[in-house]
Design a protein that fits this description.
There is one protein chain. This protein is of the alpha+beta class. About 50% of the residues lie in helices and about 10% in strands.
């Protein structure tokens, strides 16, 4: 089905049996989130809804959901409405939206499909809901999370309050310290795209007894996607990209967690990334086969048999980390694939043809550096970062040499850096390649580490040492 280019049409609320209101009634619309007086008007003029749906659609909960969506920012959905336009939209349609949700007549918009490249060359499919649907989904998450959190396994860490990837890695290290050094690294193939929606709704129904809430969630699952301006049905999977999908994924995979606990296995799960710890290679092979069979037959999910492997701890890659024997202890390190990906990021931010000036380049590079070190700071990596810093500074020096380009420009900048006139002219006329020049005395003694620091460049090792002090 062809998806129209008239995006204004898709900003109309999708309501079953919706009758268009006249101008006089439109003037009486109020927003969901304004002042207490405005909130009182909404509650007074709308019929009360009891049960879980009433909690979800309470003005207080919708206010909080609205604030979180604004704080998280994000791109537009199929209606092209931005976060900045949300205020005005809710002023006009806020009450109508809430009433439609109360009456079970609201129809979510289809999500906008985007694809994000993955490390293995494939692409991750993300579905971006409209900002209004993100607010509704967030309101669901705020009330459903307290219902399901007590049911979730202590071995599950992804998308859960008060838990992080660092906690997951430290739990892995505990299992390894206890002698469980063989790991089943289990890969669920396209998990978010292959979730059986009927099975998920059945699991939800075991806890959520308000059928209206189940119906609303089911509508979001079946809302469809827009790919290259064409609408496609979603009869399978959970669209990855909205606030609701992480919670639904944990609810679905909690069934797997229960089975692993019933078998007495040690494991750590972060969203759809799962590692199981055993004491021998033979046990690892046996567990790999039996757990894969359970996932495919009982949960109707698909295991990627090629990527699922039983390996010794030094060969595992989990959340970008790996492990090694550290005398009588277990150490955490950065996986080699993660380091290669880091170098690609540095290359991207130190390339010549991105059209960015010096100030913007430094800011972008430093932002990436801080974020990367903050995530991987629990690993042992001083020597690795020292090597990367040296390579990165060489890339930076090469960028400056390319930017100076002309002999006169190079001569002038070398003079500013304190090179004697005769030597500066000699250096400016060098025939060495950019890469060779970046490590030669021409730049190594002029654009030295101190000069780069004064310009504002951070280093991985310096940032790492700083964050380690804070741990």
């Amino acid at each position: 089905m062809k998806f129209t280019q008239d995006f204004a049409q898709y900003r109309q609320l999708h309501i079953e049996d919706y009758l268009q209101k006249g101008p006089a009634e439109q003037e009486s619309y109020v927003e969901v989130y304004r002042s207490p007086e405005m909130n009182e008007r909404i509650d007074t003029n709308s019929r009360l809804v009891e049960g879980l749906l009433g909690d979800i659609l309470s003005v207080k909960n919708l206010n909080e959901a609205f604030k979180r969506v604004k704080r998280n920012k994000g791109s537009h959905g199929t209606d092209r409405m931005s976060i900045q336009e949300m205020d005005a939209y809710l002023r006009e349609h806020g009450r109508t939206l809430r009433n439609a949700l109360m009456n079970g007549k609201y129809c979510p918009h289809p999500v906008r499909r985007v694809e994000i490249p993955k490390d293995d060359g494939t692409k991750r499919k993300l579905g971006i809901p409209t900002v209004v649907d993100r607010m509704v989904q967030q309101s669901l998450v705020l009330k459903l999370t307290p219902l399901f959190e007590p049911q979730f396994s202590d071995n599950s860490y992804g998308y859960r309050p008060g838990r992080s990837a660092h906690d997951a890695i430290l739990r892995c290290r505990k299992h390894l310290r206890d002698g469980y050094k063989w790991v089943v690294d289990l890969d669920l193939e396209k998990f978010f795209d292959t979730v059986n929606q009927s099975r998920l709704i059945q699991i939800l129904g075991n806890t959520v007894k308000d059928g209206r809430v189940i119906s609303l969630i089911h509508k979001y699952l079946r809302a469809g996607v827009v790919v290259n301006h064409k609408f496609e049905k979603t009869e399978l999977g959970v669209p990855q990209g909205g606030p609701l999908s992480p919670l639904l994924s944990n609810i679905m995979l909690n069934e797997l967690d229960k089975e692993l606990e019933r078998r007495g296995l040690r494991f750590v799960r972060y969203a759809d990334d799962l590692v199981i710890f055993v004491k021998s290679e033979r046990a690892a092979q046996r567990v790999k086969e039996s757990v894969s069979e359970y996932i495919e037959k009982k949960l109707d999910l698909k295991v990627n048999r090629e990527k699922t492997q039983a390996v010794y701890m030094t060969n595992v890659k989990f959340l970008g980390f790996s492990f090694y024997q550290k005398k009588e202890d277990i150490g955490v390190i950065i996986h080699s694939k993660t380091l290669r990906k880091l170098k690609d990021k540095v290359k991207e931010r130190t390339g010549r043809s991105d059209g960015k000036g010096e100030v913007e380049r430094i800011r972008k590079l430093n932002d990436m550096l801080r974020g990367w070190v903050n995530y991987y700071r629990i690993a042992d990596m001083k020597q690795v970062l020292q090597d990367i810093d040296g390579w990165m500074r060489r890339r930076i020096r090469m960028w400056y040499w390319k930017q100076w380009k002309k002999t006169k420009t190079r001569f002038r900048n070398l003079m500013k850096l304190g090179v004697p006139r005769a030597k500066a002219w000699e250096y400016a006329n060098t025939r060495k390649s950019y890469w060779r020049t970046s490590s030669s005395p021409i730049l190594h003694t002029t654009l030295n580490n101190g000069v780069l620091k004064e310009k504002g460049y951070l280093t991985f090792l310096g940032q790492y040492n700083q964050t380690r002090k804070a741990i």
